[in-house]
Specification:
Layout lengths: L2 H10 L21 H13 L3 H14 L4 H20 L3 H14 L5 H12 L3 H14 L4 H13 L3 H14 L6 H15 L3 E4 L3 E5 L5 H21 L9 E6 L3 H6 L8 E2 L3 E4 L10 H21 L5 H10 L6 H12 L19 H35 L4 H9 L3 H13 L4
Parallel strand pairs: 2-3, 3-5
Antiparallel strand pairs: 1-2, 4-5
Length: 426
């Protein structure tokens, strides 16, 4: 869910309604009446103190369990607290609060929409679909619900259903931010994938062109199942919800479906997208197949754990570390960059690869990320990684998470990587 849509949830919350204007003194010892608890909850809500507001509305609801005003206020407070938890990266806690909001006010669509968006962040696609479909039954014209349901259908590999939802939104609001890009991407993929078939394993569903070699597809499934086991163990036995969707392309279908340049070998964008042959008919080697699938599956786990809280250098560094070794050629590439004063600060490659000015700079960013993460993994192992991921999941900034987890800031990590990896090659 983008930040604009997230803010709309807060603006769309129904205004808290007071049962009575009398607010008891905060130091009073006497028991409050339901109107007094409600009024005090309104006061805390207006001040942004969601926890105290929740306590007051819960006390009021215990005294008047069928009062619609109190229950609506209670639902609103749960939603506001859920948004606060989500902002800190605690989507599980946010989801629990929204389930309570739904219980308090079952006819209100907004907590279902909010919950659907958080389920998508947690890759709980079927749960998201269920809540968003319920929301649309309650509010058929709500554009947030339709767009998010389109996102959920897309992640569920149901492209026609996703396009139908997005097209409805576009008819009502053609200029809606980000929608045109979704539609263009969907139409592009639909033109390539409309007659693709499915092949399934325990944890993966592969969508593929009917002409794809069956032996290669079965090999892909086997490698993916090994990645599910091996990468999951590296992360401390972490296994995202399944089935995990994989699109396999032949010839130039990958570039046509993704509109990505030839320097991109595979991608994870909610689905693992993998080209297994070129336009010349040349097939991917077994070694390259394993490297690409282990790399992209690592991204699956990182997104499941951190949603959008992973710094780019760590996300790509883990994917490289868990899919292949840093080679002597890679180390020499980094050494030349270091000798020429051209290494990139980790702060520069924290956000996204789109800041790179050239393909050479992108290669440098990948190798620096690989070297930095491989150094941390070899020195501190799974325990250090677990601490880092936990800190990031709580919304702590990447450098502060690094400092808390490894007792290193960016400058210190860069110096240790230069000393241990770039100068000596380990």
């Amino acid at each position: 869910m983008n930040r604009g849509m997230h803010s709309r949830f807060l603006w769309m919350l129904v205004a808290v309604v007071a049962l009575a204007s009398a607010v008891p003194g905060h130091g009073q010892e006497a028991e409050y009446t339901a109107p007094e608890w409600n009024a005090l909850g309104v006061e805390y809500y207006a001040a942004g103190d969601w926890n105290r507001a929740l306590h007051c509305f819960l006390e009021a609801a215990a005294l008047v369990p069928d009062n619609e005003t109190v229950l609506r206020n209670l639902s609103n407070a749960y939603q506001a607290r859920a948004a606060e938890l989500a902002d800190s990266g605690d989507y599980n806690g946010a989801a629990q609060h929204l389930e309570e909001a739904i219980k308090a006010s079952p006819e209100t669509p907004l907590p279902r929409i909010q919950l659907g968006s958080y389920f998508l962040r947690m890759s709980l696609v079927q749960d998201a679909i269920a809540r968003l479909e319920e929301a649309i039954l309650l509010a058929p014209e709500n554009l947030d619900a339709h767009e998010l349901l389109g996102d959920a259908y897309y992640q569920d590999n149901d492209l026609p259903a996703a396009l139908a939802q997005w097209e409805f939104v576009a008819e009502v609001n053609p200029g809606r931010a980000g929608l045109r890009e979704k539609l263009e991407k969907g139409y592009r993929e639909d033109a390539v994938e409309f007659d693709f078939k499915d092949l399934k394993s325990r944890h993966f569903t592969i969508t593929h062109d009917p002409e794809t070699d069956r032996g290669l597809l079965r090999q892909t499934l086997m490698v993916l199942e090994h990645a599910y086991r091996d990468i999951g163990r590296n992360f401390g036995n972490v296994y995202p919800p399944t089935p995990i969707l994989v699109n396999v392309y032949i010839a130039d279908d990958f570039s046509r479906a993704t509109a990505l340049g030839p320097h991109v070998a595979a991608i994870y964008d909610g689905k693992i997208r993998l080209p297994v042959s070129k336009g010349t008919g040349e097939r991917i080697t077994a070694e390259e197949l394993k490297r690409l699938l282990y790399h992209e599956y690592t991204h699956v786990v990182v997104r499941y754990l951190l949603a959008e809280n992973a710094p780019w250098w760590l996300n790509e560094g883990l994917a490289e570390t868990f899919s292949n070794e840093l080679t002597p050629h890679d180390v020499e590439f980094l050494r030349q960059a270091y000798n020429g004063g051209g290494l990139l600060p980790l702060q520069t490659i924290e956000a996204t690869q789109t800041v790179m000015d050239s393909e050479n700079e992108l290669r440098l960013a990948y190798r620096q990320s690989h070297a930095s993460t491989q150094y941390l993994w070899r020195r501190f192992g799974a325990q250090g990684l677990s601490r880092m991921l936990d800190a990031l999941s709580r919304g702590i900034s990447p450098e502060e998470a690094l400092l808390q987890s490894y007792k290193l800031n960016y400058d210190q990590l860069e110096k240790e990587v230069i000393a241990s990896v770039i100068r000596t090659g380990y």
